[in-house]
Design goal:
The protein is an alpha/beta fold and 265 residues long. It has a single domain (7-264), classed as Rossmann fold, CATH 3.40.50.1000. Helices cover 47% and strands 18% of the residues. Helix 4 (57-71) crosses helix 12. Mean pLDDT is 77; it is low at 43-51 and 232-265.
Amino acid sequence: MGNKGAAAFFDLDKTVIARSSTLAFGKPFYKGGLVNRRAVLKSSYAQFVYLLQGADETQMDRMRDYLKTLCAGWSVEQVNAIVAETLHELINPLVYDEAVALFDEHRAAGRDIVIVSSSGEEVVGPIGEMLGVDRVVATRMVVDKGAYTGDIAFYAYGDGKAIAMRELAAEHGYDLAASYAYSDSMTDLPMLEAVGHATAVNPDKALRKTAVERSWPVLEFQRPVRMRARIPSLPTPPGPPVAYAGVAVAASALGVVWWAGRRNR
């Protein structure tokens, strides 16, 4: 699809999905041996806060650097196998019914649906396909000789999201002034400012304040529903891409930390 004149851009975590898309992979990654006990013990309280409550720009930068180090050397083949298996098991992840209803409204108006997430493309891609969106923007990490190097090829965060949106607009003929964007986090302000119609969804305190100041709509999504129950015709997702993986792969390790910490306690 494309050349429709406008698009609707959605953040993923806490905007379309009721929880972090990375948390689903914590337990399988721990079982698969990608994260050991030492990594669990070295994780900090700030990382727990991010998983449970979100994070500001400084915390996100610290976490990004930590995750780059953590995932360096991981086998692409092993990660893809774990992700594919988990996606198969979690084929009906919880999504907000209100978000899917918005998808339907924008499609009826002839707009493309684009998910823009700082999670990795190996996670965002299959989720986007299950949701039937037109395209996704996600973080990519560099792979060399079958393993993650720890370097980020593209970080879909902050200004990076807005840059990617402008590139998509140029490629597919979107009029950003006529387009829509939805997010829960103040860190996505550049994404929201890139379009003519911004909406805060379940916003954090800072974004709620900004939305009120700028007269942006504020929506509260409260009805998570399994996708297959909401959209019975959803296809089984394909396996994840193998060329790159995203920060979500490493971020899943933080899910492991949180899960293992509770398990130990």
